[in-house]
Amino acid sequence: MQELFVYIHWPFCKSLCPYCDFNSFIYSYEDRKIFASSYEKEILHYSEKIAKTHKVKTIFFGGGTPSLMEKHEVLSIISLIKNNFICDDDIEITLEANPSSFEAEKFSDFKDAGVNRVSIGIQSFDDFFLKQIGRTHSSIDAENAVKSACKIFKNVSFDLMFGLPKQTVADLNRDFDFALNSFSQSHISAYNLTIEKGTDFFAMAKNNQLSLPNTEILEEMYDIVGKKMENFGFNRYEVSNYAKNGFECRHNLGYWQVKDYIGIGAGAHGRVFIDGRRFETMNHHKPSKWSEIVQKNGIGTQKFEEITHENQVYEILLMSLRTKLGIDIKDIKNRLKIDIFDNIDTEKLDFLIKNNLLLMENDKIYPSDDGLKMVNYIVKHLIKN
């Protein structure tokens, strides 16, 4: 059976962050029964199509802010998936959470519902920088949320950001030192703040209203983060992700290894084999529109297209070379029927290997530490013109 990774998108937030370009909407009490019915219908639609050919490895509640969900809503979705798909005995079930006290109080409920991993959107433990990026929680909220999560879950992750407005290297050192010395988390995602088109920060940057670190300082910050993580026993297994041994995010590894995944909810997308053909899916972004279409058709897609060979090759390179696992040549050939050497510039591959940006052994091509910093450059060179 094919491995399957299930993503559940809960699109609602209490407020929108000025840097965020995710499919998020201000939280409102829409008709919860209708939305619950729409999640159910979409899950059942996929179970009818692929339950006999796929085994669920992970479930991931993302957003938006899924920690705004109620226990019974999370439990209902998990139970529905488990009752209609074959699932791994040790299935990983992650829920993203904000560190507000209201949501942290619900951690025990989420564990009772079946969640066994939480990922908390901390971003910083410094009140000044939380204010700079428009976060509504405080450093005390963040600290209490992580401590609470670590008491309840064995598998706790949180996000930190660097390259923030007005942030210096000294600020970064202080923030990450506190994070690494204070808690028993097993995973940290460390992201460089990116300015995405359509966000408030994009407009501010365009008008020179953001004081951001320059490229040289960002590179220094990236290296500092990597060294600090290593010193505390965290292995970098992807460009921005670090984990203690055995605590890598299995759900995200499914994406990066180009495995099949389905997206449930407004704006969610997927890649999945159905009847021997691999399709790209994308749901309608607006929650009410998505729900309306699901009620009519059983699925809320605005895009459902077979993936072209060229796009599949590009996806393999772009996703797999983000991780230390790299491209498993035999697996890609067996599962996706693609011979990677027939689809890349092998002279450029040799060049990248000679320059220690890529390594190749045991039928795998994977990036060096330097190569992880240059994924886009590597992919651009490997693609055949």
Model description:
This protein is 42% helix and 25% strand. It has 385 residues and is α/β, with parallel strands linked by helices. It has two domains: 2-254, TIM Barrel (Alpha-Beta Barrel), CATH 3.20.20.70; 310-382, Arc Repressor Mutant, subunit A (Orthogonal Bundle). The strands form four sheets. The chain has a nine-stranded mixed β-sheet, with helices on both faces. Strands 12-13-14 form a three-stranded antiparallel β-sheet. Helix 1 packs parallel to helix 2, helix 1 packs across helix 11 and helix 2 packs parallel to helix 4. The two termini are 35 Å apart. Residues 1-235 form the Radical SAM core domain.
Topology:
Elements: E1 2-10, E2 12-13, E3 25-26, H1 32-50, E4 54-63, H2 71-84, E5 86-97, H3 101-104, H4 107-113, E6 117-123, H5 127-132, H6 139-152, E7 155-162, H7 169-182, E8 187-192, H8 200-206, H9 215-231, E9 235-238, E10 241-243, H10 250-256, E11 260-264, E12 269-274, E13 277-283, H11 287-297, E14 301-306, H12 309-320, E15 327-328, H13 329-336, H14 346-354, E16 358-361, E17 364-367, H15 369-372, H16 375-382
Parallel strand pairs: 1-4, 1-11, 2-3, 4-5, 5-6, 6-7, 7-8
Antiparallel strand pairs: 8-10, 9-10, 12-13, 13-14, 15-17, 16-17
Helix pairs in contact: 1-2, 1-11, 2-4, 7-9
What best-fitting shape do the alpha-carbon axes yield? globular
Structural class: alpha/beta
Q: Can you tell me the number of structural domains?
A: 2
Helical residue percent band:
40-55%
**Taking Cα atoms only, what radius of gyration do you get, to the nearest Å?**
21 Å
Proportion in β-strands: 25-35%
Tell me the major beta sheet. Answer: 9 strands, mixed
* Mean pLDDT across all amino acids: 92
Q: List low-pLDDT spans.
A: none
Oligomer: single chain
Strand order of the largest sheet: 9-10-8-7-6-5-4-1-11
DSSP summary: helix tally = 16
- Stated plainly, the CATH topology of the largest domain is called TIM Barrel
CATH class of the largest domain: Alpha Beta
**Fourth-tier CATH superfamily name of the largest domain:** Aldolase class I
Q: Please state the second-level CATH architecture of the largest domain.
A: Alpha-Beta Barrel
User: How many distinct beta strands?
Assistant: 17
Compute the separation of the termini in Å: 35 Å
